[in-house]
Amino acid sequence: MPTTLFFNQLWHEARTRFSNQLATINPADLTKKLGDSPNSAGFIIRHIADVELLFAKNVFGQDEVKVTAKTVIAKHDTGEWTNYQDLLAYQQYAFDALQKAIAAQTDADWQTQISTKEFGTKTKAEALGRIVSHTAYHAGQLAIIVKYGK
Asked: Can you give the CATH number for the domain in which 39 is found?
């Protein structure tokens, strides 16, 4: 199997840890937080999408991607992530953009080194591991917030 196809399948399957939850989340869940935690479920959804878009654009070279990573800029929940339909549309845009970015890579591209201030120098293959684990990490947080948050 070609490397790019393999990585695209890996990304798609790993992302289901997040995307499968979205069908059961309702608008009332978006403001839920755990205890004194600063971030709501809505913030987590927006944050996952923001970072996926940053990867599509800055790591994988999709210059046409439009992203204003508000959660990364603010570094905390500002209380504005409450529009369920907007969040669903935004995370779908992020999924589509990153999937397109992955598919656009040649097999040789995966060994290209990328440097960012957030995670240093990594190959594109290593960077893919970073975004896969980032999305899965926050998907776990989202599940706990929705289940136990108030």
From this structure: 1.20.120.450
